[in-house]
């Protein structure tokens, strides 16, 4: 039986509880039988995988591979996933690079089937790299079944690290945030931007994200969000604004406005 995360509270109070108990909860989750079976199988078998065909042909391996990048729902889209893996990420026209959600590019790059002579699956440490990500993402998913806002908050650190690891241009980093569905929701909500901005020109969206970030957080540099204190500010404002929106939708009371006003001096 898989360990079920304990999330007794919502909003920022729930986040603080989760932070305090995170290490113990994650360990218990990773040591539960279903997770251990999945990761042990992956470690045993992945070294023999040399092509995208090999990977998509083994559903157990593919489940861990996709789960490590939060792409669990694509488990049945084997033709699509095979194409993403085979085309790699070197060519600007590769499918992974043309998708708005850059988790697919991260996934393709990690396995390397289309990016070089040899796949990365045989490298020392590769299995551990993917299983560590899998355990973290699956724990987040389990938390998300109880509270999706907390799942999104948990993804912030890894999501920002992934972007900074592969992108040096400030504008490209913001475009990557805008193209990463979980990260975009966190930033968009924290910055008080409406979801409707997704329909306007991308360059205008970029300008809005950067201008609002400078106004709210005092910086428009994505590298600054690698700092734990800045991440905590981002997560706090995201959770407070999200909870306020839920309260407004449910009751239309002034409580939502009070929540937003109370967090402003902390940012």
Q: How is this structure best described in words?
A:
The chain is mainly α and 267 residues long. 67% of the residues lie in helices and 0% in strands. The chain has 14 helices and no strands. The radius of gyration is 19 Å and the shape is globular. The model has no long low-confidence stretch (mean pLDDT 91).
Question: How would you summarize this macromolecular structure in one to three sentences?
Answer:
The chain is mostly helical and 267 residues long. The chain is built from 14 helices and no strands.
Rg from alpha-carbon coordinates: 19 Å
Largest sheet: number of strands, sense, barrel closure: none
Query: Helix and strand string, N-terminal first?
Result: HHHHHHHHHHHHHH
How far apart are the termini?
41 Å
- Return the structural class: mainly alpha
Shape: globular
The overall pLDDT, averaged over residues, is: 91
* Unreliable segments of 5+ consecutive residues: none
Number of helices: 14
Percentage of β-strand residues: under 5%
List how many beta strands DSSP finds. 0
Helix content: 55-70%
Layout: helices, strands, pairs:
Layout: H1 11-30, H2 33-45, H3 52-57, H4 59-67, H5 78-87, H6 95-98, H7 103-111, H8 126-144, H9 148-166, H10 170-179, H11 181-190, H12 202-217, H13 228-251, H14 255-263
Keywords summarizing the entry:
267 residues; mainly alpha; 14 helices; globular
């Amino acid at each position: 039986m898989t360990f079920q995360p304990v999330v007794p509270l919502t909003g920022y109070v729930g986040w603080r509880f989760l932070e305090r108990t995170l290490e113990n909860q994650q360990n218990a989750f990773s040591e539960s039988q279903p997770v251990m079976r999945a990761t042990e199988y992956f470690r045993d078998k992945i070294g023999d995988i040399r092509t995208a065909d090999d990977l998509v042909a083994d559903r157990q391996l593919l489940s861990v591979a996709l789960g490590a990048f939060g792409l669990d729902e694509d488990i049945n889209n084997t033709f699509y996933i095979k194409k993403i893996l085979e085309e790699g990420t070197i060519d600007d026209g590769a499918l992974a690079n043309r998708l708005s959600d850059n988790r697919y590019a991260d996934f393709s790059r990690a396995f390397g089937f289309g990016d070089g002579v040899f796949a990365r699956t045989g490298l020392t440490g590769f299995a551990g790299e993917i299983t560590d990500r899998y355990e973290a993402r699956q724990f987040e998913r389990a938390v998300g079944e109880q509270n999706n806002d907390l799942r999104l908050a948990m993804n912030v650190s890894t999501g920002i690290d992934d972007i900074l690891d592969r992108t040096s241009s400030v504008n490209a980093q913001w475009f990557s945030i805008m193209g990463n569905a979980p990260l975009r929701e966190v930033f968009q909500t924290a910055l008080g931007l409406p979801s409707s901005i997704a329909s306007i020109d991308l360059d205008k969206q970029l300008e809005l994200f950067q201008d609002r970030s400078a106004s709210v957080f005092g910086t428009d540099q994505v590298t600054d969000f690698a700092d734990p204190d800045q991440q905590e500010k981002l997560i706090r404002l995201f959770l407070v604004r999200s909870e306020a929106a839920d309260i407004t939708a449910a009751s239309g009371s002034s409580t939502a406005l009070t929540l937003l006003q109370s967090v402003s001096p902390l940012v």
